[in-house]
Amino acid sequence: MMSRCLLLLAASTCFLLFPTQGNALQKYKGVDLLPQSGLVGETIQLRCDVNTKKCGDLHSIKWYRGSSRIYVFSELANITKPEGDYTKRAKLQYTPNSTAAFLTVEGLQVADEATYKCEITYLEVRDDCKVVQFIHLTTLIKPESVTMYKRVGTNDSKLTNATSIGPLTEDDELELMCESRGGKPIPMVQWYNGTDKMNDKYESESSGNGIGTGRSSVRVTVGRGDLGAKYQCRVTNDALVVPLVTWVELDVNVRPLSLNLTGVEHHVVQGTKVLLQCSVTGARPAANITWYNGTNPIPTRTNSTMQDDGTYNTESHLIFTASRWENGHSLSCEATNLVMQMRNEWPMRADLKLEVMFPPLVEIVPDAIVLNETEEISLYCFFVANPTNAKPPKWFRDDVELIPVDYLHSSEEVASDNTSLKIRNASRHDQGMYTCMVENEVGVGKSTNFANVTVYYKPTVNLTTYPVTPVTELANENITLFCEVESGNPSTLQAVRWFYGDELLKEIPDCSNDTFCGLDPSKLLLENVDRRFHGNYSCIGMNEAGWGKRSADTEVIVYYPPGPAKLTYSPSKVIKGGSVTLTCSVEDPGRPNRIEYVWKRGSRVYSVVKTDSWLISPVSLETESNFSCSAKNDGGESESSTVNIQVLAKPKFIRTPEYYTGGRFDLEHINISCRVECSPMCAIHWLKNDRLIDLGPNSLYYVQDVTMAPDIATNDFQSVYSMLIWNMSAWPGQQLDRIRDNDYYTCRSTGNEAGPGVNFTTKFAVEYPPENLTVSKAVVNVIEGQIPDKVTCLAQAHPEASFRWFREGDEDPMKKNNVLDLDYAMPRKNGGRYVCEAFNEHGRRTIATRINVLYKPECGITQTEQGGKLVLECTVVANPQDVDFTWKIKNENETLEENIVKDGLRSFLTLETRVENFRTYLCFANNSVGMSIACERDVTGHVGWWMKLENESLIIIIAIVAGTIVVAIIICIIIIIVCRRKRAADKCPNPSATKDKSDLNSSPSDALLHPDPDNRAFYENLPFHGMQNPPNKESNNASCTYIY
After folding, report:
1. Is the pLDDT of residue 514 over 90?
2. Residue pLDDT, tens place only, 46-71
3. Of the candidates 563, 578, 551, which has an alpha carbon nearest to the alpha carbon of residue 648?
4. Could you tell me which of 1023, 1029, 1019 has the C-alpha nearest to residue 1043?
5. Does residue 626 share a domain with residue 613?
6. DSSP count for the chain of H helices, then E strands
7. What is the CATH number of the domain that holds 448?
8. pTM score, two decimals?
9. Residue 187 DSSP code
10. In a domain, 586, yes or no
11. 327 CB-side CA count, 13 A
């Protein structure tokens, strides 16, 4: 924007400073009249050419507007004077010797438009000097405004620059007017469509002084060519370098340009997918596409895309699966948009007539046929198809194809026109659902319906009951008899005859009686069935084909319960532990005669026994009760019968004393008790040694008796509990004697009605803890590795004592009887004390025995020095420790007798200092068990140090020394060989060569030629070569010989 302003400013300045050039200048008073223009309100410069080089020095310059002087300039007179209206606005610019002078007028006014004269006076008058110049000044004014209007009728609406008009509709009439005011000269206003000038109408209006308003109007019919068009209003006058431009853009809606329907060229096959496309182009706004199947609209989706010209292309797809219903039908595609709707125009339309090839559509006629057996069946097969030429139809019954050869019995025939099926002499087997199938080149069509062929025939019936019998008389039920059709058509019975045995009960319906008229004849109700209804029933049914055959007999079974029961039992006297038999009987067993008996003890049913008799054995306390029985079959249960049984109990011990009764001699409380069951009740007496015990005052005993009630949990009848108690305060010393007071005590009862009394005797003994313990051996000697003798432990006690053996220090017993039996080879470590423990319920005592394990000596020899002499000490362990020692030298028969000292389990042998030979000394020890294994000691005496070494150590030392010598020899050989080879060349030097022996860099060969007696170190390192002379001696042989 800034660049554009600078460009306009520069152009304006150039326009004001320089006169407008034309093809030819006008003349004013015979002088060229230069045209010049300027913008009102701005500054203008009027140029006056000065040529001092040609015309001489300048005297003065005068400017005139018309005939009025407006400025005087004289450099010589030093005058610069504006005059009149220009006093404050005009200024002349001139630089000496310049070629032009400029009159600058500020704040140019409209009235300043006139012809201006510049008059130049030179000091000298010369020919061809231009002293008068004329300029015609035209004042210019830029237009104040540019306004666009849209004219509708007589009304104008103002438009904003750079905006859009519309939406307009194709074929609309549009009239635009553009007006520019306040310009001088009056502005020229023109309309353009892009770069093309439009056919507009221009008019102007002047307001004086050349100032006015210019107008231009244009009228157009909007069309497709105006899509996105910009209508420009361009304003020009001499004050404008660049035209003023305003514009509006047309928003035009147009009709669709074209419609195209594609997708199917020839025909389609039923079942295939069909895609139709309807395309509409060049619409604004986008077109709406509607599909029609005939006159019925089909809902679809459309897709519109905008094009470069602002219009829309719209597509819609119709996808469907072709069927016969579309064959011959037309599918239409219609397109319209807002323009067409506003104009009430018919939509654009394209039609497509479909040909759909489809398999035959088949129908069978008639839908149903009802006939009796032996009559004729006629069926017809009609079809519609495209193409219409088809193969002969195929017939099916219940989906099975009919082949005439398979139906010879019914004489099937297919008519000559290939559309009918005839079956003569029909039977029940011809009944079914008939269909037909027709095939053309597209496919196979099966009849959409079927013919239901019904063949009537007489019924075959079966009689059933509900509920299913048997039934019980006690239920007082109703039974319904059903005469059911097993086969027959129709299956509905019109009448039924009912029979009881061979007797006709009833034929239903029986309209002679209103009760039996209008009923379902296939049902017969038997009410309140009892035993009288029991028997065989049958029926005969009739349908439209006639009466059928009589059904097989069906038995109606009626159950009823047995007669009243009678209960008896034997024997009449029932005793506990014995047996009793109860018998239940009935006179009428009822129906069915399978009887089951129900027994009860008290109110509880005893379900284990179901026969007519119940044996109870043994009789118990539970047997003393009420018993009842009844007979039961599937028809019900009879009346019951009840008896009461009383049970007697013979005297019997419930609890007896123990066969043995013991009491500690010093107990304070001692008693014996017994309990006797007896019904009726009995009494208990106590005897001591078969004599009744005196229970008088100061007696040694007293008795307590308790009567106890029956206990059904233990099956005990009533009983007597009796306890005999020792009165210890009456006994001597208030304790029992261990010998005298061991007696027999008897509990005895009296007899009763059921049987004799009972008695029981117990032995009573005085008890005490173990005492007087003994062992069979206090010490058991056993040789190591042998089995020791058994040891028996005894004790006095009552009750008899129990025994356990422990090894002293162990907690767990090793034996649990009174015999210590160590039946294994005894090691010495198992020797020691073994403890016997005797115990009973009153206390415990212990006694010990010792196992002494004997073994022969085991020895060992150690070596020491005492007083400069070598001493061998033989030490043994042994049991017994009474040991004898014997010393020997190995591999010699001699037994040593001298220099031996015995000290208990040790023996010392002192050796002489003169012993120098290596010897092995043997020590033997002997006790009562046997001789020990010899123990050895090697003694070397006074010998070389190597003799003191062990054999293995000596061998190692010899091997090391031998190895060292071999390595040294190998190293020496290697050194000698290397040195000889290295000095071989130096041993034979050139005889003519001489060397200064003082030359330290000389070789060993030089030293051989000139030996230096003082250089001994050198000669000592030389190798020795056989029988050579010493290096410092003269040699008689000048040759060198190498010996390797």
Report:
1. no
2. 999 999 998 999 999 999 999 999 99
3. 578
4. 1023
5. yes
6. 6, 79
7. 2.60.40.10
8. 0.40
9. P
10. yes
11. 18
